[in-house]
């Protein structure tokens, strides 16, 4: 048992009258002790549920991210700053994810993209991104982080897989099932950046207070390039059945609210309004994705163009949303399938190296 951890647990778990928030250093220490299993399982479970009940502060989340940064290996800087598409690790259960298609569109246009996550995870137990990539013929699970770096450099796409590349974090996943609720880790992972250089983070959320936490945490951390999206099931996938509520931040001074550019995009104004594509099964999702990669008109194609066009615009490939949408559609017809094949070959080649050694 860790006496130090017990003191931190007592601080946040003493109730609404005598409980206190952790400072940044204390939160970093707590995170490291959980990742290194220096705290006991009873202490870790108690901390996670107490922290959820109390609700984390931006300073606490900044400290927890600091703790992760001290222990987690990271992908190394690229000549072009990448976009990180940060989505909930417990996946999707109601609507079809389009982040892999968005990533392929951007990489085809020369914008590097990094994703991260793990296997099927509580509490939602939805389809994780790693499983979608496997269905597309891209198995990131066998690659070392050095091999992911090589694939990222050659194809513009990379995936940090928790179980292989950050096993300390993966060891905390069972607690999500045991406490029965999403812990603050589920908010923290939407802001994690497993990349050592300058990057733009796209962070999805469901509830508006979460966006406030993003902004507070990033202010503590000095993160100046991020996009917040009130997305589908908390992901950074833009919806089509309602107004898209987006915050864009790219300047160095975060002291004023005016630094956030608020975008309210109405999909119907651009011809992309419609019902969201339901997630019926992984088999159907992959069949629909294959149709998109073949350039066939379908609802998922509309979702892919809508998302790809927005991020092409925000990443500076296109000067406005309209041209972004046009470019995204053309890339899906002409080049994205080739990019996926290049990615498959690169990942398969790295996997074969592992088997040979």
Offer a concise description of the structure.
The protein contains 17 helices and seven strands. It is α/β, with parallel strands linked by helices and 357 residues long. Strand 4 (200-204), helix 13 (208-221) and strand 5 form a beta-alpha-beta unit.
Strand content: 5-15%
Largest sheet: 7 strands, mixed
Q: Architecture of the largest domain in CATH?
A: 3-Layer(aba) Sandwich
CATH superfamily of the largest domain: Nucleoside phosphorylase/phosphoribosyltransferase catalytic domain
Structural class: alpha/beta
Q: How many domains, in number, for the residues?
A: 2
Q: For the record, give the distance between the C-alpha atoms at the N and C termini, rounded to a whole number.
A: 40 Å
CATH class of the largest domain: Alpha Beta
Uncertain runs with pLDDT below 50, 5 residues or more? none
